[in-house]
Design a protein that fits this description.
Radius of gyration: 43 Å
Distance between the termini: 177 Å
Helix content: 55-70%
Strand order of the largest sheet: 2-3-5-1-4
Structural class: alpha+beta
Number of helices: 10
Order of helices and strands: HHHHEHEEHEHHEHH
Mean pLDDT: 75
Shape: elongated
């Protein structure tokens, strides 16, 4: 009886030991499977995490080479063009023309970006105003500005930024995908060192995203709103080139301006001579006055 009991107890002990060994091996495998990856494995795990995501072929190609996808996309999207216009205008009243241009900019949904006015020494009045208007209506605005006076100079500059626009959008998509992968790794990681490494990478990617988004916003604003700079000069404030036929008004205006400038020059010279030259002529006048007075006194004696 004692022998059978001893054998039964031995079998129970061996069975419990074997069961404990199997359980410990199983736990070790699970820990090894779910252990936090080191920095060297982060990119590999991020690639594995997105390998099974349902992404389009174009997105994969863009991630590999944004320049290649940019050329293909640029052929199918609308052209992104920045327009800059410069005009020189002669109007009857520079301030009235400026007010009409400001009202025109607000009417079409734009705004006044900058304005400056001054009066030259000869009395010429000048105004420079810069407005920004929706690109779809900037030609209409130019036509209405031309009607405010006589156009002396006009230039339109068109800058095509389609390629840069597409490249920035592709880069932004890749950066956002990388950010999402890092966020997925952040949820899986458990070690403090790995968490800190992922946080640093995530902060760097977010900084890059903010920079790219800022550049994209700038380009969108420049494309959506065209910039028009108008320089306004009042008619008659300066002699302009005459037309092919004999222009009496032109010559009268030129003669009048020459006379005004001559008078201003003479008056300016007298002011400098009287005030600035007093250092030279005042002592001479005093000496002459003393000499004449003494001579008269000598004659009386």
């Amino acid at each position: 009886m004692d022998i059978k009991y001893s054998q039964w107890a031995m079998r129970v002990f061996l069975g419990a030991t074997l069961l404990a060994l199997v359980l410990s091996l199983s736990c070790g495998v699970k820990k090894a499977r779910y252990a936090t990856p080191g920095p060297a494995r982060m990119e590999e795990m991020a690639a594995d995490a997105t390998a099974h995501e349902p992404v389009s072929r174009s997105a994969v190609d863009a991630a590999k080479s944004p320049a290649l996808i940019s050329e293909a996309a640029a052929a199918t999207i609308d052209r992104q063009i920045i327009y800059k216009v410069s005009m020189s205008l002669e109007a009857k009243s520079s301030t009235a023309a400026r007010d009409e241009i400001e009202a025109l900019a607000l009417e079409v949904g734009g705004y006044v970006s900058d304005t400056e006015s001054w009066v030259a020494e000869a009395g010429q009045r000048y105004v420079t105003i810069t407005i920004r208007v929706p690109t779809k209506r900037f030609r209409e605005v130019i036509a209405r500005v031309r009607a405010l006076g006589e156009v002396k100079q006009e230039s339109i500059e068109a800058q095509d930024v389609t390629e840069e626009f597409v490249d920035i959008e592709a880069r932004l998509r890749v950066l956002r995908q990388t950010e999402q992968r890092l966020l997925d790794l952040l949820k899986r990681s458990g070690k403090l060192a790995d968490l800190l490494q992922i946080e640093r990478e995530l902060a760097q990617r977010r900084t890059e995203i903010e920079q790219v988004e800022g550049r994209l916003r700038y380009l969108k604003d420049r494309v959506a709103f065209s910039t028009i700079t108008i320089s306004i000069q009042e008619a008659g404030s300066a002699a302009v080139a005459p037309s092919g036929r004999y222009d009496v008004v032109f010559h009268l205006r030129s003669a009048y301006l020459v006379l005004v400038h001559l008078g201003q020059g003479i008056l300016t010279a007298l002011i400098y001579l009287v005030i600035g030259g007093s250092v030279l002529w005042l002592p001479v006048v005093v000496l002459i006055w003393i000499f004449v007075r003494r001579r008269r006194a000598g004659r009386r004696q």
